[in-house]
Specification:
Elements: E1 13-21, H1 25-35, H2 40-51, E2 57-58, E3 80-81, H3 84-104, E4 111-120, E5 124-129, E6 135-140, E7 143-151, H4 171-181
Antiparallel strand pairs: 1-7, 2-3, 4-7, 5-6
Helix pairs in contact: 2-3
């Protein structure tokens, strides 16, 4: 078994990772940062929506030259893109984590992305030919991705109004209500 950067209890969590993936590091880092903390189903629908340009990935760190988009308003950040290839790679890793959870016997409806990390892999080198007989590097930036999905806490329903204690009302508010009720 490979080492992950975070150690968790293996009974209620599942792990997945991809190494030397031929997808841009910067785009993938922003995509993974967007789904961190999401429930598994929500993360999968989010990535499908990113592929169809219905939702956007906010670019918070690697945002030089990234244009401003109106869809980013929901994230509270002006810049964003729709990195299709990164979304496909991360979505395939999430599907792999889901199947790992099913093999372990975990309930996939309660899984949540608790740890997601992207690291740079060694650059793949090619060359491009320039004017006047010069040669420049033409490199790709692959990455490693690792994710840990953990069983989330069960949702506790809110108690009815009858069960809750009465809300305290200040003396000032009571006086104002009495004053407003006078004819």
């Amino acid at each position: 078994m490979t080492r992950y950067s975070k150690q968790v209890d293996t009974n209620d969590s599942c792990q997945t990772r991809g190494a030397y993936l031929r997808v841009h590091y910067k785009n993938t880092r922003e995509t993974v940062a967007a789904i961190k903390g999401m429930p598994l189903r929500r993360a999968m629908t989010f990535l499908e929506n990113v592929k169809n340009k219905k939702e956007i990935v906010p670019f918070t760190r690697h945002s030089g030259g990234v244009g401003r988009k109106a869809q980013c308003k929901q994230w509270g950040h002006p810049q964003g893109r729709w990195p299709k290839k990164s979304a496909e790679f991360v979505l395939s890793l999430l599907k792999n984590a889901e199947s790992n959870a099913e093999v372990k016997g975990l309930d996939t409806a309660t899984l949540k992305v608790t740890h997601a990390q992207v690291n740079m892999a060694p650059k793949m080198r090619r060359r491009t030919y320039r004017a006047h007989g010069r040669i420049n590097p033409y490199q790709s930036s692959p990455c490693h991705i690792e994710m840990i999905l953990t069983k989330g806490e069960e949702v506790v329903p809110r108690p009815d109004d009858a069960d809750r204690p009465a809300k305290k009302v200040s003396q000032k508010k009571l006086a104002r209500q009495r004053r407003d009720r006078r004819p």
